[in-house]
Amino acid sequence: MSTIFDRILDGEIPCHKVYEDEHVLAFLDVGPLSPGHTLVIPKERKAHLHELSDEAAAAIGRVLPRLARAVLSATGATAYNVLQNNGSEAHQAVFHVHFHIIPKGSDGGLGIDWPARSLAAEDAAPMVEAIRRALAAES
Ligand code: AMP
Predict the structure, then answer these.
(1) Which CATH superfamily is domain 4-111 in?
(2) Residue 120 DSSP one-character state
(3) Which of 62, 68, 111, 135 lies 20 to 30 Å (CA to CA) from residue 101?
């Protein structure tokens, strides 16, 4: 299904572009939580992070720190969040992978509810085992 970001990639609608290379496009979020709020998207058309190819993921990883430095430099912020939502329950609204770079400071930013629990040893061991098994099945 085509998303608004696919339409931006196809040049059907404009964006406030700050960066582009063969695999990645970055542009300002039209509903910023703070000045400089930037979205970084792969050109690969996948809804969720876990669906990305290694090549697209590596291309994003290569430029994220550089883009974060540029956003900090442009805004004067010294703190920021990188947010990446997957699934509507996790607040994803546009189903094309995107990373938010959100400066945090007196001019706004991301508010986070962080209802932390305590990790019990009897829960950790089987979880580690299950994740390791899943990783092993991938290779
Ligand atoms: P998410 O909740 O992680 O899916 O965030 C989607 C983000 O895309 C929101 O912060 C929107 O403000 C932003 N957004 C939606 N349409 C556009 C657009 N045409 N150009 C730039 N940002 C957009």
Answers:
(1) HIT-like (3.30.428.10)
(2) -
(3) 135
